[in-house]
Structures are given as C-alpha cells and as structure tokens.
Design a protein that fits this description.
Radius of gyration: 17 Å
Largest sheet: 5 strands, antiparallel
Distance between the termini: 20 Å
Number of strands: 7
Helix content: 25-40%
Amino acid sequence: MSDWPSEHPRRPAPAAFHTAAYVTLAGADWLASADPCPEAVHARWASCPEAPSTLPCGTVFDVINTPALFGRDLVDRLWTAGPGSGPVATHRGRILLFAEPGTARRLPALLGWEEWSGSVPPLLCHGPGDAVTVPPLFPQRPPQPDPPHTPHSAQDLTASRWLVAPDVRHPWLPGPGALLWACIRAARRATGVATAVPDGPVATAARDSPDAPADPATTRTAPTLIPPL
C-alpha cells in the first residue's frame, strides 16, 4: 500500500499485496486526522496503544462495513481485477474497507441500479455523522497461521485487527466505482456465474471512472489475506 508508483494519480500500479499488521507513525497521523482533536487521539493511543479507538467518518475516509465472507471476497476482487485496496480491518466478525469520502452515500445508489444488487448482502456504509471502531495500533498478540483444515475459533472470528494497516500519511482509497465493480464481481462469483460485469449504464460508468479497476486482461494473481480470517 505504501509508495506505489501509479499510472493514474488515484490508482496504484500492480504491486505486491502489502499487509502491514500494525499502524506506522504516518498511518497513525492519518487516522488521527479524522478526529477534530487529533492530539487527544494521539494521547489516548500513547496511554493505551493496544485498545480499539472510535473515529468519525466522512471527512478523511468513509468505511464500507461488510459481512466477513463477502468482505474477504470483495477484497480479493479488488486485488485480482484491480485497482487494489486501502486500509482494511476486521472487527467483530465483519470487514471494514476504508474508502474515499463520499463513497458511503454514492455506493448504495449505484448498487440500486444494478441487476445483481439483490445478491449483495446488506452493506453498512459509514459516512458523515457516523463513527467506527478501529483496531488497536498494534496487535495484542503476533498473528499465528492456522494449521491446515483447522476451523477458526470464536476469538479469531471476533478479533479486532488490521488486515492492511495504514502506513502512510495519505493512503490511496478506493472510490464508489471501484467498489461497485468489486461488489458485482463478488456477487456473481458467489452465485456461481461467470464474473463478466453487465454492460448496463452504471457498470459502464464505473469502468470509465478514474478509480475503476484495470482491464481484466492485465490483472495480477489474487493475494492471500494475512492473517487469514
């Protein structure tokens, strides 16, 4: 996620999937800037860096809150079909995708025009006036890979942790066009249908938007989320 070269100023070029497990100082500055009193946020983190925090949405970022399984597939679609993702966290068994401000308002409207919207599970879109709980800056324990064929424990499913932690002062964030494309692909995949996006007017607009993913012919191998959900 950090220091990506880009062919488009808002789109990271293909790169290795960066999975920082903890927030850097620059990433903490970015998160704290969402609060009207960032100094107070830093003070809370300094006194208890392993505690979750509550931050307002709508100015620095919006958050798209999804069920765990769909959210994981959504992140996979963002990376296999482009253009990647910004910070991603898991909290209480759900996936939190950090997105451009304004996405929380526009994404539901765009999905409403798509024939596959009925296959997308309910999304909680947090924008102006909302607040979200973000994971601690540092993990409470080092993430351990699960043995093969071992089901996740209840603690693992409800753990609050970063899957892609903020590590730069101005991280790239996906917009509504990129997330619309990824939602449609994830919904079609879930129903066992080919992942070609319908050529409706909204889908076409999403492909032509500045934050739309790259051509599928130039996509890269899907990354594995570390630690696994």
